[in-house]
Here is the input.
Amino acid sequence: MSGPTLRGSVCVAGVGETEYYKRGQSPDAEGKLALKAIVAACADAGISPEDIDGFSSFSNDRNDPSRLAAALGCRELRFANMQWGGGGGGGSAAVAHAAAAIHGGLAECVVVFRALAQGQFGRFGQGPRRNTIAGDPAHTVPYGLMSPAQMFAMKVVRFMHEHRVDQNALRAISLAAYHHAQNNPRAVMYGRPLDEATYDASRWIVEPFHLYDCCLENDGAAAMILVSAERAAEFPHTPCYLLGAVSGSHYRAGAGVHNTPEYASSSFPTLAPRLYSMAGVRPSDVDVLQSYENFTGGVLMSLVEHGFCDADACNEFFVKERFLAPGGDLPLNTSGGNLAECYMHGLGLIIEAVRQIRGDSSNPVPDADVSMTISGPMVTPVSSCIFGTEATL
Amino acid sequence: MRGFYLAPGLPQPIPAPDGLDGPFWAGLAEEKIRLQRCADCRRWQWGPEWICHHCHSEAVGFEEVPSAEGVIYSYERVWHPVHPALKDQGPYLVVLVELPGADNVRVVGNLLGDPEADVVIGSRVRPVFEHHPDADPPFTLLQWEPVIIPT
Ligand SMILES: [Zn+2]
Here is the structure.
């Protein structure tokens, strides 16, 4: 890639997570969860929270950077950024913005964070409780189309129809996530394995999504500290560099009442080429992949749009064995992901991508040099990012 | 007047307070599908926008779609109720319908009939206007039923 780039400009100094709880069961308020994750990330990096001078988040996180900086005793606040859009689409975008701030000299030590306490603030997967509804939702909610699963199933049905994809392709994504969660003590589904028969017998939420095709809803928080790549040697872990990060969506992805022209899409067709160009890698170079599963159908389309699989070859490509660490061709969602580890709007997936580079994943992929994360399929904007070891620079 | 497709109690639609989609809802009450059409470039658009996304003209009005028959572009069969009003509903079908009479813009509705029937993407459907005259304010939903092609 010629011209300005984030490639190799920043590294991950540290990562931190709270314990992950089932929805509504966190003993801590959301603001405290955010602080705990940030303090944990600082401890991981061996720095003081007072050194943080920037905050980057997404999905309308409720924790105001000015308040966080006050609570943490940060010496100075230089960068406070929020990516527009809901769901997990902004996860990798928050990384991109933090990196851009550092690369552009706006800040030196930026924390990417996300905190959720749904017991405190209400759930995602429920319909509205008002008597009347206006605007775009007025054209869908009165027909019983109101939850995220219902909004996205319509896209996945069309994609599976166009490309003759079988249900077993979705099942493989779910089985791989649950498989990996069995080695991850942090995972909410640790100790609760899933097999083919259980998946097949599980109830429909909305076709083509069984119960096990749908993400968890959790309480917790996650944080990641980014600094200039020049400082990589200051921190205790194997250096992990950002190779590329992009966000956005394709033509009129935000058109109302399900009128996006390229409808059966995870919203990545224009992003993936930009990501690979910035990172200087090809799909075949990716050693391990975290792909945001709000619903398995989003992973299906995300992998196609990122060039891992031809749209008409999904039935052959999406088999569980391919996705299992350590030996599969493309280990996928190696922490258990949003289906089986925790739903932290996908920041957990980005942290897992870093762990694969550092070698401290609970399902390590040997010699992983190129580690990719896809954030928030089917919403707009979406984002994706790639980390690499020092050898990739 | 047939019964309502979904159990009562979901939020009822009202015209957007900013005026963007009022003629659409008024049209349904008169059993007409009125969508946005640009007076300058004559192209249709939906969902509603303040300007024409093709030519950026502000002269965007509402016109009746000349042929209201539609084609099923996608669909979904919902099983898990996410609203208390649908607790005893059982499965239901939501369809995304393309309107060939209006540059193939899409609208969302329910597909009337057996909710467990096979749904064929690409099959033809015709509009059914589901009036709720006793609601406050009254409203009309745009539903769809299969066009049975004689053999
Ligand atoms: Zn126009």
About this structure: The pocket of zinc ion is lined by residues B 38, 40-41, 43, 52, 54-55, 57 (CB under 6 Å).
